[in-house]
């Protein structure tokens, strides 16, 4: 298991925003988020702020640059009750937006690499919080943090179409 995505710029979250060891055998979801902002520096600063009490494993800028904020060996605080079974991917932008071409390409490359690290997590969309695969944060419901419009249908549809074409 490799802890760091080889194509990522490492911008670590504050230690206070990272949970304990992630039991790799329990990971079953790759969770897609939207940051509700389009400034990479803003999300980096948010995760570095010890008072934020939030983090994600990765974020992807509108230009397709991947930042890694939490090593895969650690729990990111992004999905509340699902933190211990999920790898989280923030996308810069807003709910209702689509991913840029570069952002989609980077997201698919990251998902493909994550699948090599977690071969038990299929590269297919699921809307079932008790399932396995690629899921939207909002599909985790109240116990996942109660963000029903995260990342939004346009992004979920883009990812589903792209994964279906693989």
Provide a descriptive summary of the structure in words.
- The protein is of the alpha/beta class.
- It has one domain (9-164): Lysozyme-like, CATH 3.40.80.
- It has three helices and eight strands.
- It has helices spanning 40-48, 101-117, 153-164, and strands spanning 9-10, 18-21, 29-34, 58-60, 66-68, 74-76, 86-91, 133-136.
- The strands form two sheets. It has a six-stranded mixed sheet, sandwiched between helices. It has a two-stranded antiparallel sheet with strand order 2-6.
- The longest helix is centred in the middle third of the chain and has 17 residues, at 101-117.
- 39% of the residues are buried.
**What is the CATH H-level superfamily?**
Peptidoglycan recognition protein-like
* Main sheet record: 6 strands, mixed
Q: Which parts are unreliable, with pLDDT below 50 for 5 consecutive residues or more?
A: none
Mean pLDDT: 96
Q: What is the correct CATH architecture?
A: 3-Layer(aba) Sandwich
Relative helix content: 10-25%
Distance between the termini: 24 Å
Shape: globular
The assigned structural class equals alpha/beta
CATH top-level class: Alpha Beta
Strand content: 15-25%
Domain tally = 1
Query: In DSSP terms, counting alpha (H) and pi (I) runs of 4 or more, how many helices?
Result: 3
Short description:
This protein is α/β, with parallel strands linked by helices and 166 residues long. The protein has one domain (9-164): 3-Layer(aba) Sandwich (Lysozyme-like), CATH 3.40.80.10. It has helices spanning 40-48, 101-117, 153-164, and strands at 9-10, 18-21, 29-34, 58-60, 66-68, 74-76, 86-91, 133-136.
């Amino acid at each position: 298991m490799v802890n760091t995505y080889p194509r990522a710029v490492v911008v670590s979250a504050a230690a206070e925003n990272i949970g304990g060891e992630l039991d790799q055998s329990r990971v079953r979801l790759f969770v897609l988020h939207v940051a509700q902002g389009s400034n990479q520096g803003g999300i980096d600063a948010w995760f570095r702020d010890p008072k934020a009490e939030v983090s994600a494993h990765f974020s992807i800028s509108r230009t397709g640059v991947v930042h890694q904020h939490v090593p895969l060996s650690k729990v990111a605080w992004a999905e509340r009750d699902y933190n211990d079974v999920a790898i989280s991917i923030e996308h810069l932008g807003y709910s209702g937006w689509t991913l840029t071409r570069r952002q989609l390409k980077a997201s698919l490359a990251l998902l493909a690499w994550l699948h090599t690290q977690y071969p038990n997590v299929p590269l297919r969309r699921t809307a079932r919080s008790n399932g396995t695969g690629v899921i939207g944060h909002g599909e985790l419901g109240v116990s996942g943090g109660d963000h029903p419009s995260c990342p939004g249908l346009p992004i979920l549809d883009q990812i589903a179409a792209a994964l279906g074409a693989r």
